[in-house]
Amino acid sequence: MRKKDQNAQSVETLIYCGPSLPKLGLIHSTSYIGGLPRNMEEHFEKCSSLKQLFVPVERVADTLIAINIQGTAQHTWNESIKSYANGGGK
């Protein structure tokens, strides 16, 4: 494999599977190339659930299914994010 191909494969792409939060600049199903968005660090500190719903492409389908199943971690994280967005995390 060529060196250029190896570097291309090491770049992580994450998909945000949580609810859309336009005020924070987060839109459901947006892809982030290169890992977590750095401009969200302050929000990650206040609402750790946000980080949990940035998932690798290969986990998107399972995550979206789990968000809709009450009692799963993904459902809990999604509800926590909604609460944070409505002022519950301030």
Give a quick precis of the structure.
The protein is mainly alpha-helical and 90 residues long. Helix content is 46%, strand content 11%.
How would you explain this protein's 3D organization?
This protein has 90 residues and is mainly alpha-helical. It has one domain (3-88). It has five helices and three strands, in the order αββααβαα. It has helices at residues 3-9, 41-46, 49-52, 60-67, 73-88, and strands at 13-16, 31-33, 54-56. Strands 2-1-3 form a three-stranded antiparallel β-sheet. Helix 4 (60-67) crosses helix 5 (73-88). The longest helix is centred in the last third of the chain and has 16 residues, at 73-88. The radius of gyration is 14 Å and the shape is globular. The mean pLDDT is 90.
Fold blueprint:
Elements: H1 3-9, E1 13-16, E2 31-33, H2 41-46, H3 49-52, E3 54-56, H4 60-67, H5 73-88
Antiparallel strand pairs: 1-2, 1-3
Helix pairs in contact: 4-5
Characteristic terms for this protein:
90 residues, mainly alpha, three-stranded antiparallel beta sheet, 3 strands
Low-confidence stretches: none
Q: In order across it, which strands form the biggest sheet?
A: 2-1-3
Give the helix/strand class.
mainly alpha
Count of discrete alpha- or pi-helical segments spanning 4 or more residues: 5
Biggest sheet overview: 3 strands, antiparallel
Rg, rounded, reads 14 Å
